[in-house]
Amino acid sequence: MKKQKKTMRTPLMILALLLAFNFASAQHDHSSHDHSGTPHEHKAEPPHGGTVKDVGKYHLEILFEPSSPDEKLNVYVLKSNLKTATVEGITGTVQLHYKDGTHKDYALQASGNEKLFCTPADMVQPFVCIITIKIKDKTYSTNTEYKGFAK
C-alpha cells in the first residue's frame, strides 16, 4: 500500500514542478508598453471568448469547446493589441495532466491561418493543460486548468 501511494505522489510532484517552472519562465514582457502605477489589465475582451494568457511578446487565447466533434481545444495566437496573428509556420504541443496522475500529449494542428487546435479524447475529467508553441526560433509556454464535467 505504501509503495502505491509513493508511486502516485511522484507524478504529482513532477506536475507541480512543471507548473512552477512554466509560470516562472512564461512571464510577460513589459518592454513594449507602460505599466506605471496600475496593474496589468487588458481592456479589450478576448476576441474569441476564451482565456488570454501572456507569453512574452504574444498572448495565447485558449478556448475549450467540449461539445464540438473536433477542434475541442483551440489556441489563438494574439499580438500585443489582442488582434489574431496568423499561425502559418507555428508549431505546438499540448500536455494534459489529469488528477489520477496520467497525462496525454497532443500535437497542435492549424485550422486555416487563424488558430491551432487539438481534439482531446477525454473532456469529461478535469485537467491541467500545458501549451507550448514555437514561433520561428522562440518557444512560448503557458498553462491553464480545465474543470471538466466529472462529479
Question: What layout of secondary structure does this protein have?
Answer:
Layout: H1 2-25, E1 51-55, E2 58-64, E3 73-78, E4 91-98, E5 103-107, E6 109-111, E7 115-118, E8 127-135, E9 138-146
Q: How would you characterize the overall build of this protein?
A:
By secondary structure, the protein is an alpha+beta fold. The protein has one helix and nine strands, in the order αβββββββββ. It has one helix spanning 2-25, and strands at 51-55, 58-64, 73-78, 91-98, 103-107, 109-111, 115-118, 127-135, 138-146. The strands form two sheets. Strands 1-2-3-7-6 form a five-stranded antiparallel beta sheet, with no helix packed on it. The protein starts with a helix and ends in a 5-residue tail after the last strand. Residues 19-42 have low confidence and may be disordered.
Nearest-integer average pLDDT: 81
Question: Rounded to an integer, what's the Rg over CA atoms?
Answer: 17 Å
Helix content: 10-25%
**In whole angstroms, how far apart are the ends?**
26 Å
**What is the beta-strand fraction?**
35-45%
- H/E element string? HEEEEEEEEE
Spatial strand order of the main sheet: 1-2-3-7-6
* Largest sheet properties: 5 strands, antiparallel
Oligomer: single chain
Overall structural class, as computed from helix and strand content, comes to: alpha+beta
SS elements, strand count? 9
The number of helical runs is 1
Shape verdict: globular
* Uncertain residue ranges: 19-42
